[in-house]
Amino acid sequence: MVDGDSIAKMHSKCYNEHMFRKETISVHLPNRKHNRRAYRRAKRKLKHLGMHKDSKTVMVATLSTRRCERITKYCREAHLRYFWESKLSRRSSNYRKKFFDSHKPAVFGCYFCAYCGRLVPRSKVTVDHLYPIGKMRKDLKLQKKLKRRGYSNINDPRNLVASCHRCNQAKAARMGSWIRKGRLGRHPIYWWIRHCIRMVLLLIILCFLWILPAVFVS
After folding, report:
1. Which residues is 64 bridged to in the sheet?
2. Closest alpha carbon to 52 in 82, 26, 19, 34
3. How far is CA 159 from CA 13, 33, 51, 218, in A?
4. DSSP assignment string, 139-184
5. Full-prediction pTM beyond 0.85?
6. Which of 28, 45, 54, 122 could form a disulfide with 60 if both were Cys (CB 3.0 to 4.6 A apart)?
7. Residue 60, SS3 per DSSP
8. Strand-pair category, 119-121 with 110-112
9. Strand, helix or coil for residue 108
10. What is the CA radius of gyration of the chain?
11. Could you tell me the domains of the chain?
């Protein structure tokens, strides 16, 4: 039986691993020519937070998650552009393999596009991240939301959907209705039901078009 102290130590260990793991963050400084005072203020503050200058306009650092959160908070207050390369939001090299291992083809080796329902052969499938990587890197609320839902990272199979090239280009880093479409469209049964309803409606329309002229003639 596990006692309370063991559980507390386990939670403390997980918290420390999350808060003190090393992650890379880079910040774009204000334009020195246009606003010299803001440039110096931002440079001084970021240097105090542990960052060093990478180029004339960019400062970088590899710091703990807690320190990165402090830097991102300051960047939002000072309206500075930043890029946080968190492990949670990093694209893996084998995310396509993860998707194909966890999702079987819908019919004859083809997959339904999660956004438009078009059948796409496996060789032409574009594996799309339902929650975009670009949004995940900048939005801490979204990162926490996915953690609460049990996502291991951005490449979790639940965040991967099949799409055609056209829909993938149209979606880009958008969310909103695209997320709702993807959640429904990831299930092949949704498209089977939708296509069956379309066929039934088409048959009804054809029957009316065939019956109505006969009624008017008689």
Report:
1. 22
2. 26
3. 27, 43, 32, 59
4. -HHHHHHHHHTT--STT-GGGEEEE-HHHHHHHTT--THHHHHHHH
5. no
6. 54
7. strand
8. antiparallel
9. coil
10. 25
11. 14-85 (3.30.70.340), 97-186 (no CATH)
CA angle 177, 178, 183 (to 5 degrees): 100
3-state secondary structure of 48: helix
Residue type, 123: S
CA 137, 141, 147, 149 dihedral sign is negative
Could you give phi then psi for residue 28, rounded to 5 degrees?
-90, 125
Tens-place pLDDT, residues 30-83:
888 788 888 888 888 888 888 887 777 888 888 887 888 888 888 888 888 877
In terms of residues, how long is the chain?
218
Largest CA distance in the chain: 91
Name the region of 117 (left: φ>0; alpha: ψ -120 to 50; beta: rest). left
Residue labelled with tokens 């839902």:
149
What whole-number distance in Å separates Cα of residue 15 and Cα of residue 21? 10
